[in-house]
């Protein structure tokens, strides 16, 4: 268990810079998730912490020690890869014990340590099998076992659940979270799946194009996204954005480019009239047959618990999640209300969040 | 109301004409390849008179094991067999070890010059060795290594390693880099990764290369002819050539000598052939 400090970290491949001066620090025992779209530099960042990628500039410290020039094995970290990276010709027990064997720990002790870890992960009956004889979920568990058995300072996970099917992913998610609670170790976890990030992390780091967009707890990021990118990235289905001009006088409302007016619950503190982007999560949109803004139903997706409706409002697509069971058909007109206190406002140009008003 | 018929008519098995064609060509090719082997083996076991009195592919009426003993003695196979064995047993494993290590370094350790070094190495596989026979002789001679084991093993290594590196490099490149990275994090050095992870994974390819290299080295003629002048240093192919020129009219013993020469390579092939096949097809289908 240890703290991790990243200070002004840069990474370039020749002229191509992929990480632009990233700084962050993780507390001892924290579960940190680095999330962002493909190519945002999250895996590169993780690999720089692991020592698998050279650092162009900046420092990485683990437990107060700068590890820039230490080899991966000297950093006392363990990593779980997306494709498991199990040694194909070794049994599960040998895979798990490999690092211990290399550190010259006596055989009897290795067997005991492997056995103990296998028990935590429910791998005991599989210890004599080869990786090719295991299912995807079992392989992932072995990869985790290989990491746990070493009792490292920091665990690094590089998209460990991406190769699993949807059901197994949900199950493994819970297992990893339970494991973190049990071990209490520092975990840095990379994923592009915002659901994984929201459900597992103590804190989330949202990255875009090699820069940190926002760091915070899942609910902080969900409730108070600093910009449109974070707002759109977290939450499923994604947040709806409607661009328009904010009226200053009268009841709070937004005039869309098409001229339609969307009634609002509150108005941000912007002073004069100005162009903004309204962000409303699909779950915060409701039906209002009297005051709502007209929209035409394009796609209906019943999930059982609720219904996702994709509707066209003044030429823009709007997704809403309705808990009522309605007899809707494609082409029907519905009236949507955006009068929610949970509405977000962003600057049209900078995409930054505008402070809340009345 | 629908009724279901209790009688199920089995569809007539239709043979795929393409498959039949392929089988016929396979049998034809097998016959073409097996005919000389059968001819040589049968002739080697016939008596001198039977060779001329019976049909070429007829089975021997009485097996003349003595042919082998006589050929062995006349052809000085004691000596040539020993030389071939020493040269092959040193060259083949040594070449494979060097090639595997070089291929690992080129494929897995980044040091900036990997691609250029590989291309440089491949030049060795592109230039036919016949072109280099004369300069090679001069070089080996200047090192005073003519008629010595190192004098033939070193050139064999030089000409054998490039194509082995080429094949192994392709194979090592295909192994996910995460496997190396996981091992590096586990605390393994590159040598440990090579020995404990890469070598076991590529055993089928190594077995395939071992067979190919064994057969090539065992049967190599031209370079041995140039670099081994002393009769006591001759290898089997040279011994066979000498035997042929001396006893060309004694067909049964000549063929017995050929069988003696070919047999070890055949045995090695038979022992490793199951790896050979899996090695050739490995990587072809996602495992």
Automatic annotation (TrEMBL), chain A:
SUPFAM superfamilies: MOP-like, P-loop containing nucleoside triphosphate hydrolases
Name under which the protein is recorded: Carbohydrate ABC transporter ATP-binding protein (CUT1 family)
Similarity comment: family membership: Belongs to the ABC transporter superfamily.
GO cellular component: ATP-binding cassette (ABC) transporter complex, substrate-binding subunit-containing
KW Nucleotide-binding (keyword) present: yes
Gene Ontology BP terms: carbohydrate transport
Stretches assigned to the ABC transporter domain: 4-234
Example of a GO MF term: ATP hydrolysis activity
Superkingdom per UniProt: Bacteria
Alphabetized UniProt keyword annotations: ATP-binding, Nucleotide-binding, Transport
UniProtKB/TrEMBL annotation, chain B:
Entry-linked Pfam families: BPD_transp_1
Membrane topology, record value: Multi-pass membrane protein
Coiled-coil annotated residue ranges, if any: none
Positions of transmembrane segments: 20-42, 86-106, 118-140, 152-172, 193-215, 254-272
GO BP annotations listed: transmembrane transport
GO CC field: plasma membrane
Record keywords, A-Z: Cell membrane, Membrane, Transmembrane, Transmembrane helix, Transport
Compartments where found: Cell membrane
Residues covered by the ABC transmembrane type-1 domain: 81-272
Domain of life: Bacteria
Family assignment from sequence similarity: Belongs to the binding-protein-dependent transport system permease family.
Protein's UniProt name: Carbohydrate ABC transporter membrane protein 2 (CUT1 family)
Organism: Primorskyibacter sedentarius
């Amino acid at each position: 268990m240890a703290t991790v400090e990243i200070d002004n970290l840069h990474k370039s491949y020749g002229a191509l810079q992929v990480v632009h001066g990233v700084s962050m620090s993780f507390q001892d025992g924290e579960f940190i998730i680095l999330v962002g779209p493909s190519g945002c530099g999250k895996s590169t960042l993780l690999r720089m912490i692991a020592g698998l990628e050279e650092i162009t500039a900046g420092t990485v410290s683990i437990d107060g020690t700068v590890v820039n020039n230490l080899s991966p094995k000297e950093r006392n970290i363990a990593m779980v890869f997306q494709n498991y990276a199990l040694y194909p010709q070794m049994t599960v027990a040998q895979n798990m014990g490999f690092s211990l064997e290399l550190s010259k720990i006596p055989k009897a002790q290795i067997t005991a340590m492997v056995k103990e870890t296998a028990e935590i992960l429910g791998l005991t009956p599989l210890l004599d099998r080869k990786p090719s004889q295991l299912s995807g979920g079992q392989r992932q568990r072995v990869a985790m076992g290989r990491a746990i058995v070493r009792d490292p300072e920091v665990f690094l996970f590089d998209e460990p659940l991406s190769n699993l099917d949807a059901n197994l992913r949900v199950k493994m998610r819970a297992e990893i979270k339970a494991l973190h609670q049990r071990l209490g170790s520092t975990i840095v976890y990379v994923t592009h799946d915002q659901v994984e990030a929201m459900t597992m992390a103590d804190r989330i780091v949202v990255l875009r194009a090699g820069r940190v967009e926002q760091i915070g707890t899942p609910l902080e990021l969900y409730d108070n996204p600093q910009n449109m990118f974070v707002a759109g990235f977290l939450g499923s289905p994604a947040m709806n954005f409607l661009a328009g001009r904010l009226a200053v006088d009268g009841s709070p409302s937004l005039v869309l480019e098409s001229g339609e007016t969307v009634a609002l619950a509150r108005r941000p503190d912007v002073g004069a009239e100005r162009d903004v982007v309204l962000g409303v999560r699909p779950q915060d949109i409701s039906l209002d047959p009297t005051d709502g803004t007209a929209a035409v139903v394009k796609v209906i997706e019943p999930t059982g618990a609720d219904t996702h409706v994709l509707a066209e409002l003044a030429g823009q697509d709007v997704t809403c999640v309705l808990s009522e069971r309605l007899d809707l058909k494609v082409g029907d007109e519905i009236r949507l209300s955006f009068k929610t206190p949970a509405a977000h406002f962003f600057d049209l140009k900078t995409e930054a969040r505008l402070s809340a008003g009345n | 109301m629908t009724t279901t018929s209790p009688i199920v008519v089995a569809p007539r098995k239709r043979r795929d004409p393409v498959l039949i064609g392929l089988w016929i060509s396979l049998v034809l090719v097998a016959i073409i390849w097996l005919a000389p082997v059968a001819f040589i083996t049968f002739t080697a076991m016939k008596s001198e008179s039977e060779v001329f009195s019976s049909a070429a592919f007829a089975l021997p009426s009485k097996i003349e094991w003595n042919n082998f003993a006589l050929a062995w003695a006349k052809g000085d196979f004691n000596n040539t067999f020993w030389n071939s064995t020493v040269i092959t047993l040193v060259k083949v494993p040594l070449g494979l070890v060097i090639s595997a290590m070089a291929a690992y370094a080129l494929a897995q350790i980044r040091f900036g010059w990997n691609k250029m070094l590989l291309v440089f190495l491949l030049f060795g596989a592109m230039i036919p060795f016949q072109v280099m026979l004369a300069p090679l002789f001069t070089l080996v001679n200047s090192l005073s290594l003519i008629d010595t084991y190192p004098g033939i093993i070193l050139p064999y290594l030089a000409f054998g390693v490039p194509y082995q590196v080429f094949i192994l490099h392709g194979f090592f490149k295909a192994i996910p880099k995460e496997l190396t990275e996981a091992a590096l994090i586990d605390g393994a050095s590159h040598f440990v990764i090579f020995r404990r992870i890469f070598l076991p994974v590529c055993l089928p390819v190594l077995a395939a290369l071992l067979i190919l290299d064994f057969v090539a080295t065992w049967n190599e003629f031209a370079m041995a002819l140039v670099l081994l002048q002393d009769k006591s240093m001759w290898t089997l192919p040279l011994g066979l050539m000498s035997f042929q020129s001396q006893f060309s009219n004694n067909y049964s013993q000549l063929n017995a000598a050929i069988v003696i020469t070919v047999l070890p390579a055949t045995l090695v092939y038979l022992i490793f052939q199951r790896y050979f096949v899996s090695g050739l097809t490995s990587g072809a289908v996602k495992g």
